[in-house]
Amino acid sequence: MYIKIRLITLINGKNRMVEILLNVLIILPVILISLTVHELAHGYAAWTFGDPTAKYEGRLTLNPLAHLDPIGTLLLLITTVAGYGAMGWAKPVPVVKERLDNPRVSLPLTALAGPISNFIIAITAAVLIHLSGPGILSGILRVFVYVNVGLGLFNCLPIPPLDGFKILLGILPDRTADDLEYKAANPNYIYIGIAAAILLGGYVIKYPFIFLTNILLP
Asked: Which of 62, 107, 145, 190 has its CA 20 to 30 A from that of 134?
């Protein structure tokens, strides 16, 4: 899934080489771990609801290599090292709608599993911060909070191909949902959705992001 958030580094940015090193050694691994858990959650949810496709394709694993998309990973590496935020994506977990038990209900729940997994990571990291106190560990855990709150919120946007769009389909009346799903399968709509998510997503989630991180972090 996609992630584009303004990340807060552990230093003030005066030493550019140190900042780049921290981005590569801390922020990038945090993002990769978070994206891996996100996709794994989709796969397990789909398997639970009757679709074993992700299992057969080796996606039910915490190995990040199984979830990396070549272009998305390269873009993530470049933007993270640049220090101006992070933008990239993992390889979406395959879900065959026809294999799901009661797809009208299970497909939105499968989509929701990804953001929920990120919120769980953020809450867990926040609890550990309160238990550990100030220090390097606390700083790294704060990055986990920022990344996963941002990733969870961003993917809840009701824009194709984000998870929020699939969740929306589960709420709308059947006829409306089927019509939207049909239109969203058009590559042009997907490209428009991606562009809208990248350009506007950060502004839409800005205040929910601030609200949630203020609640979670000391």
From this structure: 62
